[in-house]
Amino acid sequence: MATDYSTFHEPTSDLFERLAAVSDLSPFRLTDEQIAHYHEFGYLAGVRILDDAQIEHLRAELAELVQPDHDGRSLWYEYNSNESSDPDLVLFHALGAWRTRPGFHDMLWNPAFTVAASQLLGGAVRFWHDQLFCKPAHHGGVVAWHQDYSYWKRTQPMAHLTCWIGLDDATADNGCLQYVPGSHRWPLLPITGLAGDMQAIGEVLSEQQMHQLQNPTAIELKAGECAFHHPLMVHGSFANRTDRPRRAAVLNVVRDGVCSADDKPLLDGTDPVPAGQPLAGRYFPLLFDGEGSL
Q1: What pLDDT shows up at residue 287?
Q2: 59 neighbors 170 (Cβ within 8 angstroms)
Q3: Pairing mode, if any, of strands 143-146 and 246-255?
Q4: Which residues in the chain show pLDDT less than 50?
Q5: If we measure between CA atoms, which residue out of 178, 184, 130, 134 comes closest to residue 158?
Q6: pLDDT of 233-245, one tens digit each?
Q7: Which residues pair with 92 in a beta bridge?
Q8: Which keywords fit this entry according to its UniProt record (predicted)?
Q9: Parallel, antiparallel or unpaired: strands 160-166 and 78-80
Q10: Residue 225, φ and ψ in degrees, nearest 5
Q11: How far apart are CA 222 and CA 227, in angstroms?
């Protein structure tokens, strides 16, 4: 039987530094200028949080996870070998890798991630859920324009943060993230689809918003670098037509104290968190208390 790593609320390997063994957090802290950029534009890109050995380890685990019959297949919250309706444009998208493999589990406690996340959230960091987004070479599909929080309204208040981590170099040619700077100040938009028509969001935008959408910023990253973004940031990514894959892991977290707004399970297969109660328990561990320890 596969190990379910959600039962472990601490690192299970030495792949990442352990926060308890780190006496000085300054190497992991963002600068005041980086934090100001995030608040002004809704994102911060180019933060290195994985080294080469960690990248290779995660790539090896990912190679197992994209095989449909892999060990631990039943542990996913959601698993889509191709979320696109077009078989010629493939988008692998899955939620729950942290439960299936030690590297993707232990990455949650990576201080290069948790310390920066705490600064941007302004408090203690609690896990929400993870994602994998993979676009194969030559026919990798799109991720349509959207706001993350439009999918997360069952958790309130809105004090969320997304960290998109490149497992390959991400470029405009192979389908890197694209942001609409400043769109984190837009109101919450309706869901218009995640893996299909890039222009579907136009149905719900004003003329001014549509104008801003025409000039997005391509977030090109080296493997091991990440981009943090606000839950209302409008973002998407275009197709991969290159001869290289574009693989990414995404960590979604909340400031500790965010509550469930639904008595039903927030993710498939998890225990319900009663409406009005803070996220906690086996599936929503505390990653960093904001003071340098757990």
Answers
A1: 97
A2: no
A3: unpaired
A4: 294
A5: 184
A6: 999 999 999 999 9
A7: 134
A8: Dioxygenase, Oxidoreductase
A9: unpaired
A10: -90, 160
A11: 11
What pLDDT does residue 165 have?
98
Please state the pTM of the whole predicted model.
0.96
pLDDT at 84: 80
**Among the listed residues 270, 223, 254, the one whose alpha carbon sits nearest the alpha carbon of residue 62:** 223
| CA angle 226–41–175, rounded 5-degree value | 45
Residue 175 has a CB neighbour count (10 Å cut-off) of 25
Is the distance from CB of 260 to CB of 276 less than 8 angstroms?
yes
How do beta strands 246-255 and 125-135 pair? antiparallel
How far lies 265's CA from each of 100, 148, 176, 278, in Å?
A: 20, 19, 32, 13
> Domain 30-278: which topology?
Jelly Rolls (2.60.120)
